[in-house]
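Re: weekly structure request thread

Next one in the queue (395 aa):
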Amino acid sequence: MKPTLISLEAFKSKTALSGFRGRKKLLQIDFLLETWVTNPPPTADGRMQHLGTLLGACDEWMKIKEGKESKNSALRSVAVQDLRKQVLLLMNYEQFQRKKQLYGPRIGVPLQPGYSVERMLFIQARNQFRDAITYGLDVTISPVGGSFVHDVHTRQPSPLVQGRPFDQFRPEDFTAYEKLAPISSQSMYVHYMRKHERLGTMLTVSNGQLSRNGAWYSTPKGITIYAMDLYGNLFVQNSTENGRLVGNVSSQFNHSSLNAGNSVICAGEIVVKEGILREISNASGHYRPTRENLIECLRVLADDGLNMDEAIAIVHTATGDEHDSVAALCAPGQAAASTPPPGRPRANRHAPPPRFEPAAEPSREWTRGTKPQAPPPQSEPVAEPSRGWNNGKPL
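Done, posted below.
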């Protein structure tokens, strides 16, 4: 479902306190909200520019009111902050649709056998909700998790699965372990994010760096998991405790959570500090992406203009982890097919990366973006894709 902005009438009712509104900047927000409805920009470029201007107007108003302690200022601040969040979600949606229109789905990697049952169970539950016409935004579907089933099956196989190995499991095998409810280090259920929820975890490239919600992004606790969908949109896990959703200990957050079990270009672990990509890997047991899947992910980020001069790529293989610079990994001849790693991998972040010489430029156009010079994009619209746009079509 497409995100929406608060109506002008509703925004006025939240900010017209004591019969007075004042402030030119607040009136500018009114104008931008009104024109969004009465004269919406027809192109993707125009919509992004309009939303960027509206975001800037919200930021300017917040800056003027910084430090003000009156009750009216506090109430108006809540309304402006809520609007700002809506604008950012809508900008992410426009970015999502833009990539979908530009490139279409790329070839990706699906959930591995066994783990793919998660997606089957999710679709079954979703169809039941739709048949009952109860599939609203508040509905959360958390299928039985592959991590849970794999863990308990490895430790103590149930006779109910009739000796089948995990990679041959069917939905009824997952259900059998759910009914047994054995003790496991993994949560029984995995959280599958809805599209509107994913938009809040999406990273965008601005001035060569990764940003989210109008500020440079840093990974929580130093490292987090990511997945890139088939259109090149990058999603990351929000801050959690022990991989479980904060406030919802019954659901676990895995790589499959980020794209609701759909195929991805790549998935793994990522380290970002103040918008600068430091490390990225293909360490995902659910998808087991190959070296070439990781390279394709990096090429998408490069096309978006991300600076990766300081980034280390960690390729998880069947024989161990390989560290290299992004430029060296993506050099010609490096995208040879590789065997998916077994088990549930995790990049060895403690191993020192090797010293390397800058690699020659790849034969295809390979851009690393530009060195970031600007401050965090608090009021900047999301940067245009490096391939350019013309009335919603690629140049």
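The chain has three domains: 8-103, 116-190, 201-247+257-394. The two ends are 28 Å apart (CA to CA).
Next request, please.
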